[in-house]
Fold:
Amino acid sequence: MTTSSNQPVPDSSTVQADMLEFLAKRTGTAWAADADVFGSGGLSSLFAMELVVHLETSYGIAIRGGDLRLENFRTVRRMAALVDRLRQPAPGGSGGSGA
Amino acid sequence: MRDPVAAAASAVTALVGDRAADWDRTGRLPGDLVRRLGAAGQLAAQIPAKYGGPGWSSADNGEFTAHVGSLCGSLRSVMTSQGMAAWTVERLADPAQAAELLPRLASGDTAAVAFSEPQAGSDLSAIETTVTVDGDSLLLSGHKTWVTAADYADLILVVARMDEGGAVVAVDRTAPGVRVRRVAEPLGCRAAGHAEVRLHGVRLPLSRLLGGGRQPLSLLVTTALAYGRISVAWGCVGILRACVAAAVEHAGTRRQFGRPLGRHQLVARHLADLWTAEQIAARACEHASRCWDEHDAGLVPAIVLAKYVSATHAAKGAAAAVQVLASAGARDGHVVARAYRDAKLMEIIEGSDEVCQLILADHALRQG
Structure:
């Protein structure tokens, strides 16, 4: 997927709010921004892939290689931080393709 | 089908000809056939154009996979392995690794992905194959079983344990310490090159660790299997299409008790169920491919659903087709006999029916 330059850039708090809404909708549970969503009683690793796809398509980023660590998805705050970081154009970074 | 897909499908039909039965009986695909399809990028047609691949959508590649699956389940299995390897690289590798490996996989090099071990089948958290960093290189040891297409593969992607997490390591088959041995006489997809892979202190450059490694094992496996499962599911649609064609042809021409078989109600019911099975499996696959192409977050359950629905229907449908053809189809090599054996294997690989059921039940419970 190509990051579109005319796409509005959400700030971190918007990403957090969006992700909390997404998680609540998909899991039927309300989460705090710093809750460990993969901790005990949390989400399955299958859901991790769903999260990856959702983050990529919602924010026009490609989460590949070394960024694909559970640490980056453990809390909504960390997801927002990952989105922030990947939205910065990385020298030599790959835009990647979707899915 | 779009034109390039239809053209590729006709070309494969011509390449396979009437030889799939022989390949099934001898347990081998011609090496030049695999290379030729690989060089045309058709073993992994979703490799993006920027890496030299055809860049097909999942929907297009799915229809193509079903077509190949209707001709030869073994060749389709080799495609599944190649596509899964390419997808795993695309997803997990860093840009430099992708730029090195994907053009190879789009231009003739073949690949397999090694998950299972003697003590780790459905429970891949139990894998023991381990990769460590030793100075400025990697050291990989372990024992993988039932690696589809490994006997044809130039490159084997090995799922391993690394510290507290997991890793995928890209291993050239010719690396010292790698030994590949064919599985003797597999039940189905007999020419798909299933093999066991032994890795004895294989030393590799650090660059062979996709994305730097230490990713969660379950996420690695889920990611790789996403492609494997949707590909197997489409392959099962192909099995069903071959069975519908064979059963309809036979039931329409063979006469018993003064009328065509298909005009006997008990045989007609087999035909109705078989046709229905193909339609159900195709719809489930189309839905999963649409989720894939539209980057829908509901992709994972859609894929597991497609795999489960298609494999179970293919197994039932193939059994019905053998029943309709009876003695006309009851010999090794015959399209319905191959379908019967191949489909049974499809209920086992890339997540058995039972593993799929557990995932789907978990999904249903979480949806509340």
User: Anything to note?
Assistant: The interface with chain B takes residues 1, 22, 26-28, 43-51, 53-54, 56-57, 64-70, 92-94, 96-99 of chain A (CB under 8 Å).
